[in-house]
Amino acid sequence: MSSLPAELERDIFETCVRNDVTTAPALMLVAKRVRIWVEPMLYESITIGRLTVDDALLMRTFTSKPVAFFASAVKNLCMTRRVPNDAARYVLEACSSVQRLACWVDRLENHGLGELIIPLAALRELSCGMSLFRVVAARSLECSWVFRLTHLELIMFDIEFVQLSIFPQLTHFSLLVGYFEAVVGDLITFISATCSFISVISVQFEEADHPELAFPWSTDPRVVLSLRDRSEPTRAWTKGDRWTTVERVIEERKALGSGALPSTWLFDLSVILQSIYVKVGKLTTYSSNTS
């Protein structure tokens, strides 16, 4: 193996880990150089605050390794609302090169978490609540990443109209709300009318409710309404599966044209791969023959 060029050798080990991450511990024992290549891959995507996982070992790892290790290794970071503010600050400060960030630690007294998001120069996807977003929006001129952000998800239970034009590269926007009400429809109308540069407008609901009124966006194929996937939201976010699923809905809708279901239809994204749609709590099979 040592006779191979270093670049090829590294590619071989990295490919092994990407194909099966469980091989990483054994591979790291092969040689010191292999450990240097492989170990950072274990920390490319980090999720903290899952209900069924004890984060104590991970947090000890944060304190035992140099800050520079996490600054270069972590690309995807998800922190749920269960993460204490102090821990969230420590982790966010260490992961300074993160590209995708879900920061659901969104309390009114977030103790400077917003200020730690502002300097994240490599950020291209953000998911957060409104208290953090307000900090970012108010200081957008200080955020170099506003010019490269492509995906934005806002958790908004008290509806606020937001100005998305500060993100010129934004293509995917998601809104998570409690249930459908008229003001939600008005907000979607505003975004649909003013954000022609956005190709995906996803609206997720906590409760299975259905808009009975007609809205200007009822025929906008970019708008996808769905129930929030409660199965494992952290895993779905880390893998980016939900965006892929919503994109599939939009592509199918465009292909069907006038035969497609209206944009006010409510989807269950957790079973969308089985072509099952949900409307007012009832399951209905959807096919290209739907009129």
Task: Give the overall average pLDDT.
Answer: 81
Assembly type of the chains comes to: single chain
Fraction of residues in helix: 25-40%
- The class by helix and strand makeup works out as alpha/beta
Question: Low-confidence segments, ≥5 residues, pLDDT <50?
Answer: 273-291
What is the H/E order? HHHEHHEHEHEHEEHEEHHEEE
Strand order of the largest sheet: 1-2-3-4-5-6-7-8-9
DSSP strand content = 15-25%
Work out the number of β strands: 11
Number of helices: 11
Rg of Cα set = 21 Å
Reported for the largest beta sheet, the result is: 9 strands, parallel
Distance, first to last CA: 61 Å
User: Which descriptor suits the 3D outline?
Assistant: globular
Task: Give the helices and strands, then pairings.
Elements: H1 6-19, H2 24-27, H3 32-38, E1 45-48, H4 56-64, H5 67-73, E2 76-79, H6 85-94, E3 100-103, H7 113-117, E4 125-129, H8 130-138, E5 151-155, E6 172-177, H9 182-194, E7 200-205, E8 223-227, H10 233-239, H11 241-256, E9 266-268, E10 276-279, E11 282-285
Parallel strand pairs: 1-2, 2-3, 3-4, 4-5, 5-6, 6-7, 7-8, 8-9
Antiparallel strand pairs: 10-11
